[in-house]
Amino acid sequence: MGNGSPGDGTGIQAEPGKLRVQSAAAHSRVHVAAAAVLFPLRLSCPWGTPKTTSISCSLADVMSEQLAKELQLEEENAAFPEVVAVAEGPFITGENVDTSSDLMLAQMLQMEFDREYDAQLRREEKKFNGDSKVSISFENYRKVHPFDSDSSEDEVDWQDTRHDPYRADKPTITPKKGFIGKGKDITTKHDEVVCGRKNTARMENFAPEFQVGDGIGMDLKLSNQVFNALKQHAYSEERRSARLHEKKEHSTAEKAVDPKTRLLLYKMVSGGMLETITGCISTGKESVVFHAYGGKSATEEDKIIPPECAIKVFKTTLNEFKNRDKYIKDDYRFKDRFSKLNPRKIIRMWAEKEMHNLTRMQNAGIPCPQVVILKKHVLVMSFIGQDQVPAPKLKDVKLNSEDMKKAYYQVLNMMQQLYKECNLVHADLSEYNMLWHDGKVWLIDVSQSVEPTHPHGLEFLFRDCRNVSQFFQKGGVVEALNERQLFNAVSGLNITAENEVDFQAEFFQKGGVVEALNERQLFNAVSGLNITAENEVDFQAE
Fold first, then answer.
1. Chain centroid, CA 264 distance in Å
2. In which domain, by residue range, is 459 found?
3. Catalytic residues, which ones?
4. Of 189, 222, 248, at which residue does a domain stop?
5. How many CB atoms neighbour CB 502 within 10 A?
6. How many structural domains compose the chain?
7. What gap in Å lies between CA 109 and CA 21, rounded to an integer?
8. CATH number of the domain to which 436 belongs
């Protein structure tokens, strides 16, 4: 191999102290050119112009390496005219190179191949990017050989190092002695810049859902006051999210239902009782009301399902029923089943209470929603409204004087029917719980209604009379009675006391409440004066 000659076709020439290697591609083109000179063929085409005859040259010129270089450079320049040609020349020079080792020759050949491959990659990269402002690099595909003498020792391959150059360094830790430096350049652990960077690094210890951003990369410096405020806020958000998650699993929320309620609604839809649930139409302190279209299948009691239904889902949160036990525990219908320790039982009793009250009102002919079915704390009723639009409340509708007068007498008649025929007191009657639909008033929300024999029954009735009287008097109804007159008209007790304190004391006594106090005892209980006079004149004087 070391004694090769220019005409042996090996592509390797050996001279004393010098080694030259040429690529196989260049020599292949040399052989093609030589064949074209030695064996010329005249290919003529009858309908085309004949090709120009190649310039003849000698055999020595064909076999010379100089011609091969020129041919290769011409082809490269024609393909990539803007790319500067790679400098040619011997890749290894020196008289001390040992060419007798096959390993050394293989390494030198590999290095030459790698250089040609890298040069080709650079040309492809230049062609691919062109004049674009955004360029694509092929550096990851380069074959940088470890024996390449031209490679700089300062180059660092970031893929082979553990340090990420694009990640900012965390602030250095102050030693235990509390300061660094000497003399005027001393820096303590209380330095504003050092503390600010430490606080920024500590923000990474916050909860994952608390977004802190790349403060270290921006060299953000947080003061202790700001960091403590953010830390407290992060802990508060973490506790709040935990509470909301627990509350979501065990209770209904605003405009939402818990998993158990969602399962009940799904069974109603899948069973054919309801066709679809369109959405929420009303929210209150005790329940959430949804609108739904009735299905084709009847209920278990063979009740006909109306085309549009209202689904009342009672909330199961504990804070909504702290003051509602007085509506249930003294009602003889639910007195034995009352349990203050289990809120779900209370809410089921609350839904059952509204169902029974609505049934009484419906049997008496009072305009109210029709009960379809009750499933635990979900009550399905007929929808008061049309085409998903609920009927407006009496406080929101604008009525003329005739309609307002008509509504007043209708409410008076319904209160009398509710008290005498249904043996019920609404206990929360106001313009918020009365709807105006089809030219008449409809009563809703009767879950808190109690019987007149309830210890607070007459008290609730007097409150209802006050709300109704004030609303219609403000609405311009001249015939509207005041609260005491309306109370007598509904209850039929005919109490003649002039002031409110005596009036309440008298209707408690006439209503059969044994525990009711007289006017003087009630005055002492309210005022706390403890006046002991027996007759009324001495009592007032004292």
1. 25
2. 391-531
3. 428
4. 248
5. 16
6. 3
7. 8
8. 1.10.510.10
Measured distance CA(471)–CA(407) in Å, rounded: 11
Q: Both tokens of residue 42?
A: 């005249």
| Torsion of Cα atoms, 371 then 374 then 378 then 384, to 10° | -10
483-491 vs 401-420: helix crossing angle, rounded to 10: 50
Same domain for 465 and 513:
yes
Tokens of 29: 């083109």
Co-location of 386 and 515 in the same domain:
no
3-state SS assignment for residue 414:
helix
- 292-314 burial string, b = 16+ CB within 10 Å, else e? bbbbeeebeeeeebbebbbbbbb
Per-residue pLDDT of the chain (542 residues; tens, 9 = 90+): 444 444 444 444 444 444 444 444 444 454 544 444 444 444 455 555 555 555 566 666 666 777 778 888 888 777 665 544 444 444 454 455 666 788 888 888 888 888 888 888 888 888 888 888 778 888 777 776 554 444 444 444 444 444 555 455 555 666 666 777 777 777 777 788 888 888 888 887 887 777 777 777 777 888 888 888 988 888 888 887 776 665 555 555 444 577 888 899 999 999 888 999 998 998 887 889 999 998 877 766 778 889 999 999 988 764 555 556 666 666 666 656 555 546 667 788 888 889 999 999 999 999 999 999 999 889 999 999 999 999 999 999 999 999 999 999 999 999 999 999 999 999 999 999 999 999 999 999 998 898 888 888 888 999 999 999 999 999 999 999 988 899 989 988 888 777 777 777 776 666 544 445 667 777 777 777 878 777 777 888 78
Q: Give ∠ CA 40-42-44 in degrees, rounded to 5.
A: 160
Q: Which residue from 358, 369, 360, 379 is spatially nearest to 442, judged by alpha carbons? A: 369
Q: Read off the DSSP letter of residue 169.
A: P
CA distance 33 to 70: 13
